[in-house]
């Protein structure tokens, strides 16, 4: 795969302008993105929890989908209409309250029209993933 077409700062600027509903606050930060991988951090908030004190599935799915979008943008440039066509998530263990959630995404295949990747979701500093995600994005003709 090629080198990054957008830096972290350029991805952030694009997202603030084109996708503010997902990237206007300070709860998610892009720690790295290089055209093949990215690392996102979602800061802990009680809004992330479901009854029983675990990080909710919708929180994890949204972060994983966003991480795939970020790594794809870093690889292909500012293509706002790239969209998720498939997302599969396996919940592996409980995400603990009080811990940030990290999303480590990587592209497995980048084609002209489709991109396939995976995301490992982690709770705090634990090396054991709380969820594993595979995802496919459709890339429009630009």
TrEMBL record:
Pfam families for this protein: 4HBT
SUPFAM superfamilies reported in the protein's UniProt record: Thioesterase/thiol ester dehydrase-isomerase (SSF54637)
Transmembrane segments: 66-89
Protein name (Swiss-Prot/TrEMBL): PaaI family thioesterase
Classification via InterPro entries: HotDog_dom_sf, PAAI_dom, Thioestr_dom
Thioesterase domain mapped to chain residues: 52-124
Molecular function, one GO term: 1,4-dihydroxy-2-naphthoyl-CoA thioesterase activity
Keywords: Hydrolase, Membrane, Transmembrane, Transmembrane helix
GO cellular component labels: cytosol
């Amino acid at each position: 795969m090629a080198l990054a077409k957008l830096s972290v700062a350029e991805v952030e600027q694009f997202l603030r302008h084109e996708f503010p509903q997902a990237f206007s606050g300070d709860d998610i930060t892009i720690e790295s993105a290089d055209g093949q991988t990215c690392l996102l951090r979602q800061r802990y908030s009680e809004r992330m929890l479901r009854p029983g004190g675990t990080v909710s599935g919708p929180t994890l799915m949204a972060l994983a989908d966003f991480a795939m979008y970020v790594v794809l943008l870093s690889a292909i440039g500012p293509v706002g209409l790239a969209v998720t066509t498939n997302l599969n998530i396996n919940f592996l263990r409980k995400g603990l309250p009080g811990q940030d959630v990290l999303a480590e995404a990587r592209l497995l295949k980048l084609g002209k029209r489709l991109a396939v990747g995976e995301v490992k979701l982690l709770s705090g500093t634990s090396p054991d993933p709380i969820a594993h995600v595979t995802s496919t994005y459709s890339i429009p003709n630009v």
